[in-house]
TrEMBL record:
Protein name as annotated: Glycosyltransferase
Pathway the protein contributes to: Cell wall biogenesis; cell wall polysaccharide biosynthesis
A GO molecular-function descriptor: glycosyltransferase activity
Galactosyltransferase C-terminal domain sequence ranges: 167-208
Presence of the UniProt keyword Glycoprotein in the record: no
Keyword field: Glycosyltransferase, Transferase
Family annotation (InterPro entries): Galactosyl_T_C, Glyco_trans_2-like, Nucleotide-diphossugar_trans
Occurrences of domain Glycosyltransferase 2-like (ranges): 7-123
Pfam families named in the record: Glyco_transf_7C, Glycos_transf_2
Annotated organism of origin: Aeromicrobium tamlense
Protein family according to the UniProt entry: Belongs to the glycosyltransferase 2 family.
Length: 280
């Protein structure tokens, strides 16, 4: 039987992680490995849930610039590959999963191992007082900005810019072909779009498989994400150096409207303030 590992990187969000694990325990196909990469969160190294699958936790330190999401995903993949995983499934810590997610990803990857596979993701509203129900599929309403094939259907040849690191799967050989995530990205943004560009450069197409449905648990966010402005500028500039264009332009334009950044040639920078003025 094909060996499959589910990899999650986390810092905090312990309740969301426990709920994710419970949804995995209800899957029609349990993963052979459950790899948890704790980013500057030693408490997670002690976590040992009663329900299978058993968790293999490893630690990665915080980078001075922020959480090392790219390096953490690579570390999780390396740990899974060393113990024989053939299919790598990556889940964001906030994602609950449908009962057929693991099996559908395994079917897609083993049938067409040369593709990078994603499943539809629904952004959930705030939970009711008793929490989200086990039958979370009743809340299914995938994000409209990305393909959402029905269960049992697949779409191939997707736009690399629509790749979503919230939920994806890849064959071990295709992972090696892509080369993993570029570890100069630290903090929020850019590393997933870079990964999909690396996939496209390696001749790896994007696919969407309808049976691998995930459900993103609600948490408060800033729109635009002003608390990640420095990360977005730094990672955006890195992406520009590597690919000749800027990612996350929607956020950058929203920052510009708020007077936080300005265009500088073909790039962006923090808007200079007039002498003697105070921040708002």
């Amino acid at each position: 039987m094909t060996s499959v590992a589910v990899i999650t990187v986390a810092h905090g969000r312990h309740d969301h992680l426990r709920a994710q694990h419970a949804s995995l325990a209800r899957n029609t196909r349990l993963p052979d490995q459950r790899v948890l990469v704790a980013m500057d969160d030693p408490e997670l190294l002690e976590w040992s849930p009663e329900a299978p699958p058993a968790v293999h936790a490893l630690a990665i330190d915080r980078d001075p610039l922020g959480l090392p999401l790219a390096a953490a995903r690579n570390a999780g993949a390396d740990a899974a590959l060393r113990t024989g995983a053939e299919v790598l499934v990556f889940l964001d810590v906030d994602c609950l999963v449908s009962p057929g997610l693991v099996q559908d990803y395994v079917d897609a990857v083993t049938t067409e191992p040369d593709l990078l596979w994603c499943g539809p993701v629904t952004y959930l509203p705030p939970p009711p007082p008793e929490g989200y129900p086990e039958d979370v599929e009743a809340w299914d309403s995938p994000h409209a900005a990305r393909p959402a094939p029905a269960p049992g259907e697949r779409i191939r040849g997707g736009d690399p810019d629509l790749f979503w690191s919230l939920s994806f799967a890849v064959h071990r050989e295709t992972w090696d072909r892509i080369g993993g995530f570029h570890e100069e990205y630290v903090g929020y943004g850019g590393e997933d779009t870079d990964f999909s560009q690396c996939a496209a450069r390696a001749g790896v197409d994007l696919g969407w498989t309808g049976g691998a449905r995930a459900f993103h648990q609600h948490h408060p966010v800033q729109r635009p994400p002003v608390d990640h402005l420095d990360d977005i500028l730094r990672n955006g500039a890195l992406f520009h150096r590597r690919w000749g264009r800027w990612p996350m332009t929607g956020w950058l334009e929203a920052f510009e409207e708020q007077g936080l950044v300005e265009r500088r040639g073909d790039g962006w920078g923090v808007r200079a303030r007039a002498a003697g003025t105070c921040p708002a």
